[in-house]
Write a structure and sequence with these properties.
Two copies of one chain form a homodimer. By secondary structure, chain A is α+β, with helices and mostly antiparallel strands. Helices cover about 25% and strands about 35% of the residues of chain A. In chain A, the strands form three sheets. Chain A has a six-stranded antiparallel sheet. In chain A, strands 1-2 form a two-stranded antiparallel sheet. A two-stranded parallel sheet of chain A has the order 3-10. Chains A and B meet through helix 3, strand 4, helix 5, strand 7 and strand 8 of A and helix 3, strand 4, helix 5, strand 7 and strand 8 of B. The structure holds a DNA duplex.
DNA sequence: GAGTGGTCTAGACCACCAA
DNA sequence: TGGTGGTCTAGACCACTCC
């Protein structure tokens, strides 16, 4: 190990960070409450005597921190407390949201037939090209779309699945209808910027900060379901194991 | 559940996304290899016949996806494969890096005495104001600073700790020197934009995308260590449980 | 139709890095 | 010392939302 590294010179704080600070304080102090709308970019620029792009940089900062979110072309709003989400547990998103005091709504985007390729085949541990069923959906919390999900099912492992329409939640449906009780065996997650299909489904700007989660579910010794979830970054935090909840204390 | 939502109109793809695509292809095809440097913002702008800010937007996109990273005022570089990190296991970062074929280096930033307040007191389950020891460090992978860590220790639970200098790795030191074998009981993580102390320690621009991780460690039925880690977003992915490794397949 | 964010331009000056 | 990214300005036009 090295000894202490040299301290950096103190520099003047950039303007956009000063603006970030001003806005963060207005939010923290409750001047703008949860769900409240911030002034428009142009209003803030005029008020603070700066250019619009500088204000945007500050807003982008707060968005990346999860303090605020954008509603496309409608404005910036203060984010509610993050959903606490444990991907190792088998809780359905549509049940998680109301369990933490929010209003949940689901949007079903339809079913597709596809085939296992690349990393999907690897995760299923099946042949390349094996038939898969894909169910797509969006989770809505308090009227805001926060998660786009793709659920891949190994067709040959769930005979008769295609004879029925989609029913939420998927896990319960598999158990009740097909006698299959899946078990979560692992997940993987990384931050990313969203674009393409997820941003279209979530109705947000391409480039919005997000969290990508992959989950693997097993039954009878083999993988029968792989989920890919794209969350808006400010909407959740991942909590695994024993962790005190600051909102209960 | 709602029926299928109406498809959005196809829109013209914004210029910065087209540029993102061009650069992503150059990276994916190996035209610019791992660790390779991208042309400068001005060069790209000239080559593509656009303004510098538009190029920056594309580069910011790729940075948020983790495909590239910035070295402050030195340029943009192609990111290596993400470190696979399981926070539920008790692997020290300085051992994790070499175990995945990279060169690790540690920078020790020193020790401070502090007190448990707010969420720290909550996580320790101790009185507000209880004395804590704070050890600060930075992890370097292949010459790049990728993680800034704060390790809080409950002073009264580790008698004599202050009589010795810091020794890495902390977990092994606690066991060998004090007979304390800690146990990871939970972690929490969320994406965020870094600024302040973490960005200074990591020598990156304020606003760089990052991942914040808190870990709690127990011994003898009580929490004795809380870690706060700030990772550069592109440097890792979190993998918990059984998950096939695409690099081994 | 007024207002919003989304995109884009064409500059500027600065601090910092490498040579 | 020349080139880099970091910051900032002052506009522009557009698609879209809400009224």
């Amino acid at each position: 190990m090295h000894p202490v590294s040299p301290e950096r010179e103190a520099r003047e704080v950039p303007l956009f960070l000063q603006i970030r600070e001003i806005l963060a304080q207005r939010i923290g102090s409750g001047t703008i409450g949860i769900g409240g709308r911030l002034p428009s970019e142009r209003e803030l620029a005029a008020e603070l005597g700066t250019a619009r792009m500088t204000v945007r940089e500050a807003l982008r900062m707060l968005e990346g921190e999860g303090l605020i979110y954008r509603a496309e072309r409608r404005g910036y709003f203060v984010s509610p407390a993050r959903l606490r989400y444990d991907p190792t547990r088998h809780v359905n998103v549509m049940r998680l949201i109301p369990s933490q005091g929010h209003v949940a709504e689901g949007i079903y985007l339809g079913r597709q037939l596809t085939r296992a390729t690349g990393s999907l085949a690897l995760m299923f541990g099946c042949q390349e090209g094996a038939p898969l069923i894909l169910e797509r959906s969006v989770a809505v919390m308090n009227g805001r779309r926060i998660e786009y999900g793709e659920h891949f099912l190994l067709e040959e492992a769930i005979p008769g699945y295609l004879d029925f329409p989609y029913e939420s939640p998927l896990t319960q449906t598999l158990e009740r209808r097909h006698g299959i009780r899946t078990k979560m065996i692992g997940f993987r997650t990384r931050p990313t910027n969203l674009f393409g299909i997820p941003t279209e489904a979530l109705e947000v700007r391409a480039g919005s900060p997000g969290l990508y989660i992959t989950r693997i579910k097993q039954h009878g010794g083999r993988v029968i379901e792989v989920d890919r979830e794209y969350w808006l970054s400010d909407a959740l935090e991942i909590v695994v194991g024993q962790f005190p909840n600051p909102h209960e204390a």
